[in-house]
Design goal:
heterodimer, A: alpha/beta, OB fold (Dihydrolipoamide Acetyltransferase, E2P), Rossmann fold, five-stranded mixed beta sheet, 15 helices, B: alpha/beta, six-stranded parallel beta sheet, 8 strands, pyruvate (chain B), EC 1.2.4.1 (chain B), THDP-binding (chain B), pyruvate dehydrogenase (acetyl-transferring) activity (chain B)
Chain lengths: 455, 334
């Protein structure tokens, strides 16, 4: 019986990849463990090994093909004694009944729609040429541009240099800037974060990459006690210009210790600035601002967002100021406030609501500290209803804080209580169905929005 | 460990120290001691609040190491920081006024005893989390290496902090990247109330550097000349680009861990014995007198001068106004 060789999922968030190179050809006999092909994911080029023995009867996807979805048959493997033609025939049928694709279950929502840029968010002049790029490329460009501009900016973290970044954010930076400025650290978050804070006090402008913000828990003392408080404790003498960045929140199927959203944690701390971008344009413009900022900045990215593409202004020096929310969509019936990956559920929800005749106004906070209260309040005063959306836990959430502020400053404008859509109050489960249940979804947002509209 | 030279053998020139230098060390150590005694007094009067950790007994460590430093060298330490600040030349008035939480303090009253800084004197705090100043010190050294100068950083920490994991994370990276940092373990034998013997099986703290390839040595931290000599060796090692160096200063604090510590974990006799036999200031005093470099009257004059300096600092710290209420909201962001 012949079997199909399927495009493998090589990372928790991989949905498709490029079949970079075949290392076998039709008619070759292969053994289990033999390397069949090189596959390029959004993060790295990986070797792909044979599981079963047999003969390559047919190569279905030629090398150099990009965008091959996970679980697509890429070759047919014939058993010993089976002819190639038989094999191709026999493999065709079972391919359809392939087991449920694991990666697809955990897959992120579809590509963000080429977002309708509101005329209200004038982050760049009208008529600016745009280019399409991923959040990953945007972050990389931001760092490279700022490193070119300022000799004192350097990057340190685990696997940022020779490995080219665990998530490829720093790809190419070692080549351009050398090992003095792109520094691989040992796996020792508390230590290297303290060293970076000291370097910032000594006059440099470090960018610290955490492989994930979950690991920054080991370093949280230096982020808060050493970086955030020093300017105040020194009566304004000694600041700490530093950026702490890396993926935050849930990726896909990585379990409780790798899936936490720290937005509300860091947003609580005076002395820190906290950024959580959604689009690639914001990722680039805000990261450049963060690197230039004289204060410690916590810059929360998201692994699922790294591969998403957006339009980014093609400008030589493009920055976005902190403390300025972006209105992605104007509406009159309900205000939806979110940030980071929460925005993708929120924009999706706004589409669904529009189909039901509810015009939602969608606000992306972009920075959580400073927070653009005015934009939120002005919107709530217009729509009289508000739903907040975030991935983090419901107790002490950003949405809780916004609810309180709205109550204090716009109580008389409210026609319904503010609802906070959040992740569920549980550690992140591993099972695909439970994980899905634990996260906020666009349907949760739709339900909350309808509820505050009494629909 | 370098042993204390007796006054007879410690010919001032033989120890590579001039009469003027010796007088300088005497003056600086005495300033720290009198300052700390005054701080203790002001604490008792309720003028200083919160935590206040006195440096009395350990004066030779910072004075000896400052004698080995040059302009541009950096220093960072823990919350027992008054001595370090005075030794690197910070103004006693500004330090005392910070202790009383006044506008004239180095942090304009917003830092307190544990959190003072001086960019001008390259003093980077004043850190309240035990051990956190160690990677910060390595980071300061990192910045000097990055900029390509030959300055070094003194990262001071106690025997208690020597058990913190981040110290060893820092050792690893400091040696890996050849950072010009002198790790100064001020082994005063007690981490608050827990003696070194009760908190670790391997009590030779500098020896832990061996695992990381960092050289080091134990030094009589009650002998300012021994401290200076060891400091010069360590600094030369760092400036030459050879990476970090560890100095374990065997010292002793006469007072409790903080003002509220009754120090029941050691006997009165133990403290008394060290005061009588190993006191750092008394040692230099003997060198000066027995070497014929100063008379009792000369030293009395110095005492008087120091007392006046400390008394002025105390006056200033009482007269300086409390910070304006608007200060609550400043210096949060640059």
């Amino acid at each position: 019986m012949a079997t199909d060789i399927l495009m493998p999922a090589l990372s928790p968030t991989m949905e498709e990849g490029t079949l970079a190179k075949w290392l076998v050809k039709e008619g070759d006999t292969v053994t289990s463990g033999q390397i069949l092909a090189e596959i390029e994911t959004d993060k790295a080029t990986m070797e792909f090994e044979a599981v079963d023995e047999g003969t390559i009867a047919k190569i279905l996807v030629p090398e150099g093909t990009a965008g091959v979805k996970v679980n697509t048959p890429i070759a047919v493997l014939a058993e010993d004694g089976e002819s190639a033609a038989d094999a191709v025939q026999s493999a065709a049928a079972p391919a359809a009944a392939a087991p449920a694709p694991v990666a697809a279950v955990a897959a992120a929502p579809a590509e963000a729609p080429a977002a309708p840029v509101s005329k209200a968010s004038a982050d760049w002049p009208e008529g600016t040429p745009m280019k399409t790029m991923t959040v990953r490329e945007a972050l990389r460009e931001a760092m490279a541009e700022e490193m070119r501009a300022d000799e004192n900016v350097y990057l340190m973290g685990e696997e940022v240099a020779e490995y080219q970044g665990a998530y490829k954010i720093s790809q190419g930076l070692l080549d351009e800037f050398g090992e003095k400025r792109v520094i691989d650290t040992p796996i020792t978050e508390y230590g290297f974060t303290g060293i970076a804070v000291g370097a910032a006090m000594g006059g440099l402008r470090p960018i610290v990459e955490f492989m994930t913000f979950n690991f920054a828990m080991q370093a949280v003392d230096h982020i808060i006690n050493s970086a955030a408080k020093t300017l105040y404790m020194s009566g304004g003498q000694m600041g700490c210009p530093i950026v702490f960045r890396g993926p935050n929140g849930a990726a896909a199927r990585v379990g409780a210790q790798h899936s936490q959203d720290y937005a509300a944690w860091y947003a609580m701390i005076p002395g820190l600035k906290v950024v959580m971008p959604y689009s690639a344009a914001d990722a680039k413009g805000l990261l450049k601002t963060a690197i230039r900022d004289p204060n410690p900045v916590v810059f929360l990215e998201n692994e699922i967002m790294y591969g998403r593409s957006f339009e980014v202004p093609d400008l030589e020096d493009f920055t976005i100021p902190f403390g300025k929310a972006r209105i992605w969509r104007e509406g009159t019936d309900v205000t939806l406030v979110s940030f980071g990956i929460g925005m993708s559920h929120t924009l999706e929800a706004a589409e669904k609501l529009a189909a039901e005749g509810i015009a939602a106004e969608v606000i992306d906070l972009r920075t959580l500290r400073p927070l653009d209260y005015d934009t939120v309040l002005a919107s709530v005063m217009k729509t009289n209803r508000c739903v907040t959306v975030e991935e983090g836990w419901p107790v002490g959430a950003i949405g809780n804080h916004l609810s309180a502020v709205i109550m204090e400053r716009a109580f008389d404008y409210l026609d319904a209580p503010v609802i906070n859509v959040t992740g569920k109050d549980v550690p992140m489960p591993y099972a695909a169905n439970l994980e899905k249940l634990a996260l906020a979804t666009s349907d949760d947002v739709v339900a909350a929005a309808k509820s505050v509209c009494y629909r | 460990m370098a042993t204390r030279k007796t006054p007879e053998t410690a010919a001032v020139d033989g120890a590579n120290v001039s009469k003027d230098d010796l007088l300088k060390y005497y003056r600086e150590m005495l300033l720290i001691r009198r300052f700390e005694e005054k701080a203790g007094q002001l604490y008792g009067m309720g003028l200083i609040g919160g935590f206040c950790h006195l440096y009395i007994g350990q004066e030779a460590v910072v004075v000896g190491l400052e004698a080995a430093a040059k302009e541009g060298d950096k220093r960072v330490t823990s919350y027992r920081d008054h001595g370090h600040m005075l030794a690197c030349g910070m103004d006693p008035k500004g330090v005392m006024a910070e202790l009383t939480g006044r506008e004239g303090g180095y942090s304009r009253g917003k830092g307190g005893s544990m959190h003072m800084f001086s960019k001008e004197k390259h003093f980077y705090g004043g850190h309240g989390i035990v051990g956190a100043q160690v990677p910060i010190g390595a980071g300061l050294a990192f910045s000097d290496k990055y900029k390509g100068n030959d300055n070094v950083t003194f990262a001071y920490f106690g025997d208690g902090a020597a058990n913190q994991g981040q110290v060893y994370e820092t050792y690893n990276m400091a040696e890996l990247w050849s950072l010009p940092v002198v790790f100064v373990i001020e082994n005063n034998q007690y981490a608050m109330g827990t003696s070194v013997k009760r908190s670790t099986k391997s009590t030779t703290l500098f020896g832990r550097g061996v695992a990381f390839g960092i050289p080091g040595e134990q030094v009589d931290g009650m002998d300012v000349l021994a401290v200076k000599a060891a400091g010069e060796k360590a600094v030369a090692h760092c400036r030459a680009g050879n990476g970090p160096y560890i100095l374990e200063m065997m010292t002793y604090r006469y007072r409790g861990h903080s003002m509220s510590d009754p120090a029941k974990y050691r006997t009165r006799e133990e403290v008394q014995k060290i005061r009588e036999e190993r006191d750092a200031i008394e040692h230099v005093r003997e060198l000066l007198i027995s070497g014929g470099h100063a008379t009792e009257d000369d030293l009395k004059a110095i005492d008087k001068e120091i007392k006046a300096t400390v008394s002025d600092a105390a006056e200033f710290s009482k007269e300086s106004p409390e910070p304006a209420l608007s200060e609550l909201w400043t210096d949060i962001y640059a």
